[in-house]
Amino acid sequence: MTSHWILGPGAIGRLLAHSLAPQSAVTLIGRQALPNEQTLTTLEGEQRVQRLNTLTVAELVSEAQPAPGVVHIATKAMAAEAALVNIASEIPPTTPLVLWQNGFLAQPRITQAWPGPVLCATTTQGAYITGDDSVVHAGRGPTFIGDLNNQHGALAEALAGVLSQADINASAVDDIRQRLWQKLAVNAAINPLVALHEVRNGVLRHEAYATHVEAVVREVAMILQAEGIQPPNGEQGEQAWLALVWQVVENTANNKASMLQDVEAKRPTERNAILGPLMESAKRHQLPCAELVALDLALAKKETAYASLS
């Protein structure tokens, strides 16, 4: 696991590259060329310039590269499967994959389709990009790694150790499915609202937004109870979910959530991966989800508006 390919040079992809590069061979892969000199702004405000091996997918395919020890897929959820197809011919089918997507859309599909080990990661590390050559580390939080079928515990332990040595606090778990749903709940309460209002996470604490957060959490709590998903702190009920959301908001107050970054860049958002599974579950369990539907429609309208200008 000394060689890491990171497919998707977004905020988490670049944070991973900067963290792993001092101790491992790292290749950062994207659709477009990026400068090799990349800058990380730390949580303390320090700027660290690091030379990273950056390749486009086309360059990767045309130039022979040593096989990687592990491939991290850090693209948006809706792009993950296509991104893997683009490089699949360049990696042995036994290569471990690590999926860093929000939501619960790509993970089960890729787990079923890829012949080698597939690990899923969920993290509350906050980061946002500020240009082709820079990323800001905006919040620290735990990272959990596991596989949906509990078949690769030793591999998850090994990767968690590598990430922890790279200052990304990671733990291997045997309940990653639960934790992905838990992260989904937090994302649903934070990402759509900050994207629609174009504010950073911490602004949600203000009175103008807090009641909306509470209304979303109320619906999400009912849905997750029906799915048998409990908050990670061992407590139960709506207040436990609300406490978790406010804790993440506090920990990542200065962060630009990924969905906000998409809106600012006028890209499609991950609304289908984040809100879609919750709305589908609500329909299946005959539960109300008016708040979630309203968020999804508002985001769709926003995407259509800026797409029509491009």
Automatic annotation (TrEMBL):
Span of domain Ketopantoate reductase N-terminal: 6-149
EC number: 1.1.1.169
Keywords, in A-Z order: NADP, Oxidoreductase, Pantothenate biosynthesis
Superkingdom, taxonomy of origin: Bacteria
Catalysis performed (reactions): (R)-pantoate + NADP(+) = 2-dehydropantoate + NADPH + H(+)
Enzyme class: oxidoreductase
One Gene Ontology MF term: 2-dehydropantoate 2-reductase activity
InterPro entries cross-referenced by the UniProt entry: 6-PGluconate_DH-like_C_sf (IPR008927), 6PGD_dom2 (IPR013328), ApbA (IPR003710), Ketopantoate_reductase (IPR050838), KPA_reductase (IPR013752), KPR_N (IPR013332), NAD(P)-bd_dom_sf (IPR036291)
Signal peptide (from-to): none
Protein role: Catalyzes the NADPH-dependent reduction of ketopantoate into pantoic acid.
NCBIfam families noted in UniProt: apbA_panE
Family named by the database record: Belongs to the ketopantoate reductase family.
Descriptive protein name: 2-dehydropantoate 2-reductase
